[in-house]
Amino acid sequence: MEGVRPGGGPPASGPGSGSGSGSGSGSFSSLFPPGLHGIYGECRRLYPDQPNPLQVTAILKYWLGGPDPLDYVSMYRNLGNPALNVPEHWHYVSFGLSDLYGDNRVHEFTGTDGPSGFGFELTFRLKRETGESAPPTWPAELMQGLARYVFQSENTFCSGDHVSWHSPLDNSESRIQHMLLTEDPQMQPVQTPFGVVTFLQIVGVCTEELHAAQQWNGQGILELLRTVPVAGGPWLITDMRRGETIFEIDPHLQQERVDKGIETDGSNLSGVSAKCAWDDLSRPPEDDEDSRSICIGTQPRRLSGKDTEQIRETLRRGLEINSKPVLPPINAQRQNGLNLDRAPSRKDSLESESSAAIIPHELIRTRQLESVHLKFNQESGALIPLCLRGRLLHGRHFTYKSITGDTAITFVSTGVEGAFATEEHPYAAHGPWLQILLTEEFVERMLEDLEDLNSPEEFKLPKEYSWPEKKLKVSILPDAVFDNPLH
After folding, report:
1. Distance from C-alpha of 487 to C-alpha of 483, rounded to nearest angstrom
2. Which overall architecture, per CATH, does domain 270-283+365-486 show?
3. Are residues 286 and 265 in contact, defined by beta-carbon separation less than 8 angstroms?
4. Strand 276-280 vs strand 372-377: parallel, antiparallel, or unpaired?
5. Hey, is 369 helix, strand or coil?
6. pLDDT tens digits for 422-458?
7. Whole-Å CA distances, 277 to 40, 380, 439
8. What letter would DSSP give residue 393?
9. Shortest CA distance to 203 belongs to which of 182, 230, 221?
10. Which of 71, 1, 60 is nearest to 36 (CA)?
11. Which site from 57, 143, 144, 423 is most exposed, i.e. has the minimal number of CB atoms within 10 Å?
12. Domain boundaries in the chain?
């Protein structure tokens, strides 16, 4: 439960109490949490005339058992910049993803040189409507939802990431139903006693813009949004009343920028959390051993922590939330400072430094399969052409990680090093993790056969595709199949 109140900090010792100077006298600093004070100092630099902004605060703090990880979300009135065609807007800043207190109540203190907490706070810029005297509070709940995901999954966000939300951000009828993340254009990184804090801005986008970011990359679409004033402009301000996509405003952007970018660069989306499953068709039906696990003795072996970490690292640059409820964690280890802008290469690797790959756990043998059946829900299946055209044809890999179990499916090309699937044995399983190696020739054929996946509204479920000579089958199934644990 949250409350809205004026003030820039904790009720008893907030920046608006006392002298309100924000410069921090000795007694003031001793009362005010140092991490919070550092972030507030950056806010005061931008908004010296707003020492007591309206603030949404968690009534029962997360570290006291409350549901909301962000202690506060401050809301400022930004006059924009007429010279740059930047309109007046509301500017929201979160407090809580970084370490505010330094006493291990929320985040483990790891020193001053690295990131503070998760290393970032969220911001959001919402266009101010004519006559609007106070900022809407729904962005604070949106930020809390993203923070819950980060805290529960321990997956950090990076500039260029996208979040598919599948619902208007403000619960209206708006076309703005998804998000991209980028560096805040005004707020500078802050060095606090507990580490460095950067500021990631949420940018609301339409479904077509999200799909373009998936097919190409988030940074490319953000640059296009900056060039279209009504779609964000240089400061990427979200207008919930925007009724047209950037491709409807300027049709040339799709062909001249996005399509050319996909052809040249491929896709930076290396994986998604999804509804998916796979079966080993080469195993007799009467075999009671689960096709998604390896038995050691009499106990089925689940994914090891190291294996799960490798899968998570293949997902890190393409983090996707498929629905508003928080997804289950992919692994239990937090990763900070991950680089989103790795240069594209025809020789990608599952063992590269950026993928933080590891040697498979020695207790789980890797086994080769003769024939496999892949199963996806409609949303996940619609990403298969992206996987093939934007990733494998550029010598990269793409991973589907199940949100309903341990299953993972990684497609790899012949240019990927470190894979346990090979051209001789293109289907290989390591516990519940399946790798599928596809040659460029077969990828081209699959793209032709799967062309109708680009228009999912035109086909009925279930839909099946089969390549008997390759002993591969792909089924697109209703969501209910994956929601039923007996599927």
Report:
1. 8
2. 2-Layer Sandwich (3.30)
3. no
4. antiparallel
5. coil
6. 999 999 998 899 999 999 999 999 999 999 998 766 7
7. 47, 11, 22
8. G
9. 182
10. 71
11. 423
12. 34-265, 270-283+365-486
